Amino acid sequence: MVPLKKNSLGVGTMRQFNNILVTGGCGFIGSNFIRFIFEDSEFSGRIINADKLTYAGNPENIEDLENKFNHRYFFFREDICNKKTIGDIIKKMKIDAVCHFAAESHVDRSIAEPDAFIKTNINGTFNLLELARKHRDQIKLFHHVSTDEVYGSLGETGLFTETTPYCPSSPYSASKAASDHLVQAYAATYGLPVTISNCSNNYGPYQFPEKLIPLIILNALGGKCLPVYGDGKNIRDWLYVTDHCCAVWEIMKAGRTGETYNIGGRCEKKNIDVVNTICSILNDIDPDDKNNPHEKLIEFVKDRPGHDLRYAIDFSKLENELGWTPEETFETGLEKTIRWYVDNTRWVERVKSGEYLKWVEMHYGK
Ligand code: NAD
Ligand code: TYD
User: What's the predicted TM-score (pTM) here?
Assistant: First the structure.
């Protein structure tokens, strides 16, 4: 685990929270975030996780924490669009901070079926903002987790800064852009204490295998085709998930109210290079694997419509103000990630077979 850094420049006072509402805490980044802050010995408060448990929400991502921190961890299966139930949670659990991860998060799904993206990402965020406004006597901070995709696509050069104009290409990024604007508007209009972070592509344990890195790892392990969109030359900036969690936590504790912070890995990679690197690590893990060399499984497939060419992040604001930099390199992060998917066969099998969804239905209903 990455050790939490201090606010090395001493900018701003450290906020302290007793009861943090984490939305989407059963998803990839939300579950890693809950694990990350429970490991911060300076945090002694409670985490209240509100998650609708869509296909991307898997209670097995945090089942170890439920037992370990059972007096400090509370789960509610709730839709962030439900004003009454989320409002009751805010009151009953004396919520003093919101860290808002819940979202529909996959670009390809947003192209096929945008409806849920508008509902959850825009209406859901609006709902949470209204509730935070209503309960502003108790809410010290509303942190909104967003993406670098709101800025659109870069050409061959340049970096996204916090002042890059928004120019989203997909229904996903457009819905996140809308939610960012709503958060900014609530700060400007109602004085709501907010912070926003716009982060690049994450990878690491517990990521649902629809996103590039876990999909390629699991397909390669299963000897299946490794689909690369277009010519594979699109570029993403990659960040190991605990580095993202650390940055969000630093911003929540010491970020300036009303500010946006970019988060990135200074780690630009062409998609084809990411896929080749995964293949090469897998070839080395088991030299006798019948699927070696895994590169032979690569297939160039039809490109994604509106496919952004390049993302790259200037995160010097976060670095200069809060002293945050990523701990993991792409090599160390990817090794850890591949190792995690290789070792966690039960999680992988239950996700691949959909067994985790049956468990959710049995415990919580449809
Ligand atoms: P994810 O898809 O893995 O998880 C989303 C979680 O939100 C799931 O647990 C799901 O059940 C829950 N959820 C969805 N709709 C809900 C609703 N209406 N009410 C309550 N819960 C709901 O997503 P992720 O990759 O963990 O992303 C988390 C956040 O981080 C998102 O806001 C995303 O835009 C942002 N982000 C992601 C990345 C990335 O690379 N994954 C990068 C930058 C920012
Ligand atoms: P993805 O993980 O879906 O994240 P995002 O679209 O939010 O950046 O995709 C990362 C990159 O990988 C993106 O350029 C699309 C590409 N890609 C493939 O080439 N093949 C795939 O099967 C997937 C899922 C993505």
Answer: 0.97
